[in-house]
Amino acid sequence: MFSGSQFDATTAFSGGGFMASQSTNLNDSSPSAAKSRETQGLIPVTVKQISEASHSGDEKSNFVINGIDVNNVTLVGMMFEKAERTTDVNFVLDDGTGRIKCRRWVNEAFDTKEMEEVQDGMYVRVYGHLKSFQGVKQLVVFSVRPVTNFDEISFHFIDCIHNHLHTKVKAEGITPANPSSGSSLITPVKNASNGSQEPSSNPGYAQYSVDGLKDCDKLVMDYLQQHSDMSDERGIHVNELSRELKLPMDKIMLSLKTLGDDGLVYSTIDDYHYKQA
Amino acid sequence: MDTSNPAVFVNGELLPKFIGKKVRTVVQVNKCDGVVSAAKSTDDQELTVNGLPQVPLMNFVEVIGIAETNHSINAEIWTDFGTTFDTNSYNQLCQLANGEFRNLFL
């Protein structure tokens, strides 16, 4: 849903304002800044990992897991102690490694509807923003969905392990940094919007190359080649081409125009006689 | 935040390590009389689950409860996972969660 490189987590869910982590990142040397930025998206974690996350800086919402800044996380667990209020729904998420308090603000009908579909004891997938409130870590969640395929539970924890390994490998510098990975998702979109004229001009260009002649052009060329006679300066009449090649006149004329533009044939005594160049 | 009472991912082989502790496992129910159920773990061991209500036979059920003996669990919470479940992936997850990546879970 939210991929790390496309979704700027910090600005979208921090509630706006000046972010200390961004300014420090800019001042940092480029490798570490790039590293923390790349993994800033949505991270699959366990409650145990959150419990061990350390605070970075003075901001209430800056946490570090595996040396990486963490803002938005996804968890899978059982919902307990759901308590609905007029503006928000509180609940506790138990993923088997621990329990964490969650809060879902209900501003719109969609929020209310989504929260009505989940109940205590149900497995849910949550997406949320990790925050510290009065010294206690909690999740401000923006999506709570019931788990319908229970393989998602296994998947989530395998995903946690995978992400843990991935960041660990990166931190230790085993795999080389890939500076283009961040922009690669955006670049093709840019090209598509800017280069709208390219697709139409490209096939046209291909037609003019000698090797890539269209079928009709090729037939005309071959005929002119086979029936060329140095002594006959008039060349071949278009009617003969049409008759011998069994092609309509407009196709013959189009091919001759194309071939003429490319300098492969030329008209002789009038516009109806052609010779190979 | 409370990580004092985790439910450990276990299969049949790992269950004896957690006697008296809270565990979670997925089993396929073979016999079920509403009190004691016989079930197969994800690594093909026969387990006894106490306190499991009537569930459709051959369904996969997740049981969270206290490990009683080497082969039995007292169920506190259970969830019917239905008729299809990837037991192989779950079994490998149990091994990873108790092995190399234990620190992410316990």
UniProtKB/TrEMBL annotation, chain A:
Residues 174-206 are annotated as: Disordered. Keywords: DNA damage, DNA recombination, DNA repair, DNA replication, DNA-binding, Nucleus. It is found in: Nucleus. Residues 181-272 form the Replication protein A C-terminal domain. GO terms for biological process: DNA replication; double-strand break repair via homologous recombination; nucleotide-excision repair. It comes from the Eukaryota. Residues 73-146 form the OB domain. One of its GO terms (molecular function) is single-stranded DNA binding. Residues 177-204 have a biased composition (Polar residues). Its main location: nucleus. Belongs to the replication factor A protein 2 family. This is Replication protein A 32 kDa subunit A. It comes from Arachis duranensis (Wild peanut).
Automatic annotation (TrEMBL), chain B:
It holds the Pfam family Rep_fac-A_3. It is found in: Nucleus. The keyword Nucleus applies. Keywords: Nucleus. The keyword Nucleus applies. One of its GO terms (molecular function) is DNA binding. Signal peptide: none annotated. InterPro entries: NA-bd_OB-fold (IPR012340), Rfa2 (IPR013970). One of its GO terms (biological process) is DNA repair. It comes from the Eukaryota. One of its GO terms (cellular component) is nuclear lumen. Gene3D superfamilies: Nucleic acid-binding proteins (2.40.50.140). Belongs to the replication factor A protein 3 family. This is Replication protein A 14 kDa subunit B. It comes from Arachis hypogaea (Peanut).
